[in-house]
Amino acid sequence: MKRKTLDLIFSVGGAALAVLLLVLGLVLQNQANFADDYVHDQLSQQKITFTPEAGLSDDEKEADCLVANAGKALTSGKQAECYANEYIARHLAEVNDGKTYSESSGESRALAEQAATAMEEDPESPDAQALDAQAKEAAGKVDTLFRGESLRGLLLTSYGFSVFGERAGQAALVAFLAAAVLALASIAGF
Fold first, then answer.
1. Please, what's the b/e burial string for 67-85 (b: 16 or more CB within 10 A of its CB; e: otherwise)?
2. Which structural domain, as residue segments, surrounds residue 82?
3. How much of the chain, in percent, has pLDDT values that exceed 90?
4. Mean pLDDT, residues 37-63 taken together
5. pLDDT band at 53 (very low <50, low <70, confident <90, very high)
6. What is the mean pLDDT of residues 163-182?
7. Dihedral sign from CA coordinates of 77, 80, 86, 89
8. Is the pLDDT assigned to residue 68 strictly greater than 90?
9. Averaged pLDDT, 78-101
10. Angle, vertex CA 105, rays to CA 102 and CA 107, nearest 5
């Protein structure tokens, strides 16, 4: 095989590979744009706003991202991570002495059973009524923790989705650069 023929084969193959990488880059960039737009649009619809700096507690002011986003609308995946991990998580820790929904739920069910038994035995008893009040308070904490942990999980899912979009954008850039290098090498081979 002649050198000219071999150069032509490599040049055509390189050009074809450059086109494939260009297409891959376009697909990846499209997905990155979709993820970014989708996360932004969905979070914007929730109309969540960070607490203004003046309203942040001393503990909250220790979180740099809460201070940086103070008073702003939550519209990005990175902001969602901050709000979930630094704002919601701090408040959830205060609900039941740092216990999670799962831990609190078990305690609440046990208290509810004790209160039900005590109320069956003597509904007028101050002890039974106090136990019933404790059970209702525990159930309220469980409800608060469930809602808070659900919102936190949804926000962290938005953050994760945005990270996949960022990675797709980075992969698109690599594909575009590789396509350009292959295209230049192919042109040089003709």
1. eebbeeebbbbebbbbbbb
2. 3-189
3. 86
4. 96
5. very high
6. 97
7. negative
8. yes
9. 96
10. 115
* pLDDT for 59: 93
Chain mean pLDDT for the chain? 94
- 87 and 151 Cβ atoms separated by less than 8 Å: no
Say which amino acid occupies 112.
A
Amino acid in the structure at residue 56:
L
The Cα-based distances of 103 to 55, 84, 109 in angstroms read: 30, 20, 10
Q: CA of 113: how far to CAs of 77, 146, 147, in Å? A: 42, 20, 23
In whole angstroms, give the CA distance from residue 68 to residue 86.
12
State how many domains the chain has: 1
Is 188:139 a contact under the CB 8 Å cutoff? no
SS (H, E, C) the chain: CCHHHHHHHHHHHHHHHHHHHHHHHHHHHHHHHHHHHHHHHHHHHHCCECCCHHHCCHHHHCCHHHHHCCCCECCCHHHHHHHHHHHHHHHHHHHCCCCCHHHHHHHHHHHHHHHHHHHHHCCCCHHHHHHHHHHHHHHHHHHHHHHHHHHHHHHHHHHHHHHHHHHHHHHHHHHHHHHHHHHHHHHHHC
Q: Are 74 and 43 in contact (CB under 8 A)?
A: yes
Q: Exposed, middle or buried: residue 172 (CB in 10 Å: 0-12, 13-18, 19+)?
A: buried
pLDDT tops 90 at residue 188: no
